[in-house]
Amino acid sequence: MIKVRFAPSPTGYIHIGNTRIALFNWLFAKAEQGKYVLRFDDTDIERSKQEYIDGIGIDLDWLGIKPDEIYYQSKRFDRYNDVVEKLKQQGLLYPCYETQEELERRRKIRLSRKLPPIYGRESLKLEPEEIKAFEAEGRKPHWRFKLPNFDTDPFKTRRTDVHWNDVVRGPQTIDLASMSDPILIREDGSYLYTLPSVVDDIDMGITHIIRGDDHVTNTGVQIAIFEALGAHAPTFGHINLLTTISGEGLSKRKGDLSIRSLREEGFEPMAVESLAVLIGTSENVTACRTQEELLEHFDLASASKSSAKFDPADLLTLNKHIVHLLEFDEVKARLEKLGIAGKDASPFWYAVRGNIDKVNEAKFWWERLEKDGSFNAVSEEDRDYVHQSVSYLPEGEFNETSWKSWTEALKKATGRKGRALFMPLRQALTGLDHGPEMAALLPLLGKTKTLKRLKA
């Protein structure tokens, strides 16, 4: 069975870029009748917060993503520690005592000699006395994984190609001899992303890893670790990243386009999902109303190899298309929270939905219709005409034909037509020169409010 995972770090709220990864995994799992794992990469104890864990859960639920399994890496340290001991015993994990300044100096020296700026495994040459001296200084080692890019002498590397068939990017090759041995454990004993991720993917039976293409190089390293632990690597797929319209990467720390903020601003989840999934692919970006519809347009291999620029203006356009098709029953509960309720709520919704971009904007028109008073929006030259219009109002309660009957009578009596006929009446009744069809608004206003506004 296909099994995928979304592994966010709960150090901030997820943004539209994180959501793209989450949705690609979710839709792939749905398409293959597979399972979806939510795994919190919370090994950074200081920066990981419960509020972000809760927030990510709320955001995913709002998007309609329902994990089959949930894990927390912070609860699996014993397992990682066991693996570390195994790698140490195999001679695949070794301590390094260089400071950042020393490493940077060596890097510059290698560059000046036109050599690749990779780590030279100098710590493997340390004598016991040297290690004791470093420890006496108070130095704590970081730990590197020894890449299998040599025959017998780790100081004589050879080209070692790691191949995989990426389900998005096609055949990929990484030469392990072109890379530094990766640091798996920091000086303070905390884990970097790499090792816990591999261990979890093995233990949880992950079959496909779908993630951003900024991890392509990491994949060569991780495949080597999978094999060192006696496991077969999952299938990989690397999709293009989203950037801001100016081409900058998105950041959780900056709060760039967080799902939380988009939700609070009133965007529809399917507008967010449609843009997050379809932008930067060969598919047309369309407003899908359901995940089932979005799934029909979803194809892992359709992702471009270049980054995709996310424009909030595009999101608003998609949102508008979705809102204009929402039925009253779909928005009733949300309208009630906005104070829009009663027998007029349904006809009101159908009257205004074509003139709003977000559901919460309906409140503006509800309050405008409910206002117990007039608007000072009619010009002096049209005021007499508006007062005169009272005499031509249809008898009885207003209905969907009242506006047409009223304006036709006024046209015959005054000779006005077009904008000169309609606009002063709209301005008097709504205070604006634009908005929903007046034929639908007039019955909602009712005769009492209509008279009061016309006579002002």
UniProtKB/TrEMBL annotation:
<feature type="domain" description="Glutamyl/glutaminyl-tRNA synthetase class Ib catalytic">
    <location>
        <begin position="2"/>
        <end position="315"/>
    </location>
</feature>
<keyword id="KW-0963">Cytoplasm</keyword>
<dbReference type="Pfam" id="PF19269">
    <property type="entry name" value="Anticodon_2"/>
</dbReference>
<dbReference type="InterPro" id="IPR020751">
    <property type="entry name" value="aa-tRNA-synth_I_codon-bd_sub2"/>
</dbReference>
<dbReference type="GO" id="GO:0005524">
    <property type="term" value="F:ATP binding"/>
</dbReference>
<dbReference type="InterPro" id="IPR000924">
    <property type="entry name" value="Glu/Gln-tRNA-synth"/>
</dbReference>
<dbReference type="InterPro" id="IPR045462">
    <property type="entry name" value="aa-tRNA-synth_I_cd-bd"/>
</dbReference>
<feature type="short sequence motif" description="'KMSKS' region">
    <location>
        <begin position="249"/>
        <end position="253"/>
    </location>
</feature>
<dbReference type="InterPro" id="IPR004527">
    <property type="entry name" value="Glu-tRNA-ligase_bac/mito"/>
</dbReference>
<comment type="subunit">
    <text>Monomer.</text>
</comment>
<dbReference type="InterPro" id="IPR049940">
    <property type="entry name" value="GluQ/Sye"/>
</dbReference>
<dbReference type="InterPro" id="IPR014729">
    <property type="entry name" value="Rossmann-like_a/b/a_fold"/>
</dbReference>
<dbReference type="GO" id="GO:0000049">
    <property type="term" value="F:tRNA binding"/>
</dbReference>
<keyword id="KW-0436">Ligase</keyword>
<keyword id="KW-0030">Aminoacyl-tRNA synthetase</keyword>
<comment type="similarity">
    <text>Belongs to the class-I aminoacyl-tRNA synthetase family. Glutamate--tRNA ligase type 1 subfamily.</text>
</comment>
<dbReference type="GO" id="GO:0005737">
    <property type="term" value="C:cytoplasm"/>
</dbReference>
<protein>
    <recommendedName>
        <fullName>Glutamate--tRNA ligase</fullName>
        <ecNumber>6.1.1.17</ecNumber>
    </recommendedName>
</protein>
<keyword id="KW-0067">ATP-binding</keyword>
<dbReference type="GO" id="GO:0004818">
    <property type="term" value="F:glutamate-tRNA ligase activity"/>
</dbReference>
<comment type="function">
    <text>Catalyzes the attachment of glutamate to tRNA(Glu) in a two-step reaction: glutamate is first activated by ATP to form Glu-AMP and then transferred to the acceptor end of tRNA(Glu).</text>
</comment>
<feature type="binding site">
    <location>
        <position position="252"/>
    </location>
    <ligand>
        <name>ATP</name>
    </ligand>
</feature>
<feature type="domain" description="Aminoacyl-tRNA synthetase class I anticodon-binding">
    <location>
        <begin position="380"/>
        <end position="455"/>
    </location>
</feature>
<feature type="short sequence motif" description="'HIGH' region">
    <location>
        <begin position="8"/>
        <end position="18"/>
    </location>
</feature>
<keyword id="KW-0648">Protein biosynthesis</keyword>
<dbReference type="InterPro" id="IPR008925">
    <property type="entry name" value="aa_tRNA-synth_I_cd-bd_sf"/>
</dbReference>
<dbReference type="InterPro" id="IPR033910">
    <property type="entry name" value="GluRS_core"/>
</dbReference>
<keyword id="KW-0547">Nucleotide-binding</keyword>
<dbReference type="Pfam" id="PF00749">
    <property type="entry name" value="tRNA-synt_1c"/>
</dbReference>
<dbReference type="InterPro" id="IPR020058">
    <property type="entry name" value="Glu/Gln-tRNA-synth_Ib_cat-dom"/>
</dbReference>
<dbReference type="InterPro" id="IPR001412">
    <property type="entry name" value="aa-tRNA-synth_I_CS"/>
</dbReference>
<dbReference type="GO" id="GO:0008270">
    <property type="term" value="F:zinc ion binding"/>
</dbReference>
<dbReference type="GO" id="GO:0006424">
    <property type="term" value="P:glutamyl-tRNA aminoacylation"/>
</dbReference>
